[in-house]
Specification:
72 residues, globular
């Protein structure tokens, strides 16, 4: 039986956006910093939330901390 798995790997662009989300930037600040439109930033955030099956920023922060996504 075929049971395809959804690829939850975040793209480089999504990671750049989510690093700034993690750091507390607002959508308009992220857009200005990365030279993107606010619409594109929102789409990246929505895509990440869908891939990770989360619904809000606090859930993403917990996920990022648990996976050490942005630890140096």
């Amino acid at each position: 039986m075929c049971s395809p798995r959804f690829n939850s790997r975040l793209s480089d662009a999504e990671m750049r956006v989510m690093k700034l989300v993690y750091d507390g930037f607002r959508i308009d600040e992220i857009a200005d910093t990365l030279y993107l439109s606010p619409h594109t930033v929102k789409n990246h955030i929505k895509s990440v939330y869908t891939k990770l099956k989360i619904h809000e920023k606090s859930e993403f922060i917990r996920y990022a901390n648990s996976k050490n996504l942005f630890k140096e």
